[in-house]
């Protein structure tokens, strides 16, 4: 099962650009994270760039439906792309050429139901749903689909408790003088294998189909299910009107993949003894930059972005990354 219907990269700022407003800084966390697709190294390498996948699991997070990352590696020849490998030599971060067919497929029709799912769910809930009369996403193993609603927490102790409960890497309370203001956690839906083997999902689908047979006035049927893993989480930090975002994607044995285009540049650097990728995106109406790296011990992929009244320079971002890396991220 995979994601389809990813929105345009800059749909949330085109209106402002068209009206002639000057866009100095924008919040880029969703854009950065949605540029990442992660794959199961054992079973999902056949996945195409149609959607975002987390180590064979459904990435049920609304913030990561925005768009897919397009990066150009300007520091390398056209046939060479940035890779980061673990100690075993396995690729964990891969930059590769853009698929020219990506984005040409029409959005799946079931996305018209997304607002109903969000109205149905409380923050931090995973929704299983069945829709009658609509085509399934390509490659779906079941008519049972999943979507989640991000849990947002404005209190660091509460955020810390959730990170501990889910056995996630711990994002700090402060970083380089920036103080935590809010955190987000996105539930991770089950893998295809789990959907096929766990009786809970077969039972849930049967219940929703039975409900559909009894109720012919609607086509969407939903149920809240338990979850135990996070697909993505983020901490937002503020200092005097400036903001940074520290986000993490647990890979669960998978790897992250970037599609490359001419709108951006990527450069592999070494910070605190670790490989870090500096990414810069330049458009006619907006530009931004961010850092990313892989933590092998945690099997997690980190992204740090900057926005607000005073964005960090490249050097300041690298200093921030050094502090975070030395702190265990």
Describe, in plain words, how this protein is organized in 3D.
- The chain is α+β, with helices and mostly antiparallel strands.
- About 20% of the residues lie in helices and about 35% in strands.
- It has helices spanning about 15-20, 30-35, 115-120, 155-165, 190-195, 200-215, 315-325; strands spanning about 35-40, 55, 55-60, 85, 90-95, 125-130, 145-150, 150-155, 175, 180-185, 220-225, 230-240, 240-250, 255-260, 265-270, 275-280, 285-295, 300-310.
- The strands form 4 sheets. Strands 8, 9, 10, 12, 13, 15, 16, 17 and 18 form a 9-stranded antiparallel sheet that branches. Strands 1-14-5-4 form a 4-stranded mixed sheet, with no helix packed on it.
- A hairpin with a 2-residue loop joins β9 and β10.
- The longest helix is centred in the middle third of the chain and has 16 residues, at about 200-215.
- The radius of gyration is 20 Å and the shape is globular.
- It starts with 13 loop residues before the first helix and ends with a helix.
């Amino acid at each position: 099962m995979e994601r389809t219907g990813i929105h345009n990269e800059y749909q949330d700022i085109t209106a402002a650009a068209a009206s002639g407003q000057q866009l100095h800084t924008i919040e880029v966390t969703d854009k950065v994270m949605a540029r990442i697709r992660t794959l199961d190294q054992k079973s999902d390498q056949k996945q195409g760039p149609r959607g975002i996948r987390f180590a064979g699991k459904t990435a049920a997070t609304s913030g990561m439906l925005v768009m897919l990352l397009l990066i150009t590696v300007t520091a390398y020849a056209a046939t060479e792309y940035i890779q980061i490998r673990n100690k075993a030599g396995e690729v964990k971060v891969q930059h590769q050429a853009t698929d020219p067919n990506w984005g040409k497929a029409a959005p799946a029709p079931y996305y018209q139901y997304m607002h109903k799912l969000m109205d149905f769910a409380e923050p931090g809930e995973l929704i299983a749903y069945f829709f009658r009369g609509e085509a399934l996403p390509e490659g779906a193993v079941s008519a049972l689909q999943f979507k989640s609603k991000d849990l947002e927490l404005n209190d660091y102790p509460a955020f810390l408790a959730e990170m501990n409960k889910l056995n996630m890497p711990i994002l700090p309370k402060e970083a380089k003088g920036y103080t935590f203001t809010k955190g987000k956690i996105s539930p991770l839906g089950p893998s295809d294998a789990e959907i096929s083997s766990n009786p809970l999902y077969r039972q849930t689908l049967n219940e929703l189909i039975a409900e559909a047979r009894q109720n012919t006035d609607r086509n969407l049927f939903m149920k809240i299910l338990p979850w135990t893993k996070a697909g993505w989480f983020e901490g937002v930090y503020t200092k005097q009107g400036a903001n940074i975002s520290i986000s993490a994607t647990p890979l669960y044995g998978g790897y992250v993949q970037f599609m490359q285009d001419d709108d951006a540049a990527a450069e592999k650097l070494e910070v605190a003894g670790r490989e870090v990728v500096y990414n810069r995106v330049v458009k006619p109406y907006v530009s931004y930059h961010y850092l990313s790296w892989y933590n092998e011990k945690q099997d997690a992929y980190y992204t740090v972005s900057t926005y607000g009244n005073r964005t960090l320079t490249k050097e300041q971002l690298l200093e921030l990354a050094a502090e975070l890396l030395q702190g265990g991220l």
